[in-house]
Amino acid sequence: MKILVVGANGQIGKHLVRFIQESEHEAKAMIRNQEQASYFKELGAETVIVDLERSIEDIAKAAEGVDAIVFTAGSGPHTGKDKTILVDLDGAIKTIEAAKVASVKRFIMISSFDTRREAILNAPSSFKPYVAAKHYADEWLKSTDLDYTVIHPGALTNEKGTGKVNAATEVERGEVPREDIASVIFNSLVNNATIGKEFQVVSGNTSIKEALKSI
Predict the structure, then answer these.
(1) CB within 8 Å of 43: residues ≥ 6 apart
(2) Which of 39, 130, 136, 148 is catalytic?
(3) What is the distance between the alpha carbons of residues 42 and 160, in angstroms, rounded to a whole number?
(4) What is the domain-level CATH number for residue 29?
(5) Does 39 participate in catalysis according to the annotation?
(6) What is the pTM of this model?
(7) Domain count, the chain
(8) How is residue 193 annotated by DSSP?
(9) Which positions, given as ranges, span the membrane (predicted)?
(10) Is 132 part of a structural domain of the chain?
(11) Could you read off the pLDDT of 152-173 as tens digits, one per residue?
């Protein structure tokens, strides 16, 4: 399986590309500029340079020849509301539409921990645009006929992954290493039982493979 990782230069994306390249599968890393390519070339991964603010057609061209797409891009905490709209909402929706154009059925979305409408209403004012963007991107994906999985990570940390999580439709808030989320993504890609599923993930005591079996 060949997997396009959108947002590959992010911390989750880098872990994910490494996991893919260490397996029998193949990663295609979508990055914004050539300066980001060296990490992926060292892993032997193909790179494609496309900015998410470009067209659906540009993203679809990047998705040619792949079997699955993972959207793990984000505008980041230090950008304004404009980038939240352009990347987390419009970029996500353009990638979903690009998957259709490129005839890629498998799509995994990395979302926010809680994107229900109540979460938008209850979020701090500075966080509302992000939660709203993720809410509508998730809803757009779920309204398609793509083989989707929506993953809602807890508070992300840079701790080393433990390989153990708590995953369910709803779990108590908590932290989770980015490396473990990358492993959850990889294991979801190779587990068709996660298709059509949406779940929250935090650190826990269950191995990732076993946790995904109970989703």
Answers:
(1) 17, 18, 21, 27
(2) 130
(3) 21
(4) 3.40.50.720
(5) no
(6) 0.95
(7) 1
(8) G
(9) none
(10) yes
(11) 999 999 999 999 999 999 999 9
